[in-house]
Here is the input.
Amino acid sequence: MSIFSKLAEKSWLTPSAVSDVQDRSVGPAAKTALSMFMGTLTSMLLLFAVGYRMRMAQPDWQPIDDPSLLWFNTALLVLAGLLMQAAKNAATGSHIKGVRNYLSMAGVLTLAFLVGQYAAWGELRDSGLYDPRSPAAAFFVLLTGLHALHLVGGLLVWARATWRAWQGIEVKRIRLSVELCTAYWHFLLLVWLVFFTLLLLT
Here is the structure.
């Protein structure tokens, strides 16, 4: 086929070519936006962590026993992060079945983590140690609640990516979403490990 024939076909205007151009332009912008969001969120959460440590130094601080369920919940979130990484690896290798399965399992474990966090609040309340006026209890609810809220936001993006994966869409069209979800899950896992360590120090 001559070069003139290729030009006449306008192959650069085919749907696949247009999609590739869009992916190359949208990808860096989306990753930059996520990085900026996580940077801003890190600053905010760091302030809460510093405030928590400063409040612990006050004489009226009464420590509480953290619910033992937090250990199990932490294991769930670690596994969810590992499965997200597996989904990303599958997307890189264009294995749609792996993307579907790993994304689904990661989401289920994340939902289980959120249910477990709610159960931990109930465990704290039922123990008789919870007092709304207690700074330690208030910070416990604040830190775990903030983390859970941002995890719910991530699940909205996860749900869309998972739905598209099960609809039989090409892997390359959801690869960016999987990569962003994985980065966000790893970030929130790190945030939770910091918060969990702080809670154990009380």
About this structure: The helical segments are 3-9, 15-56, 69-92, 96-126, 135-166, 175-200. The chain has one domain: 42-200. The radius of gyration is 22 Å.
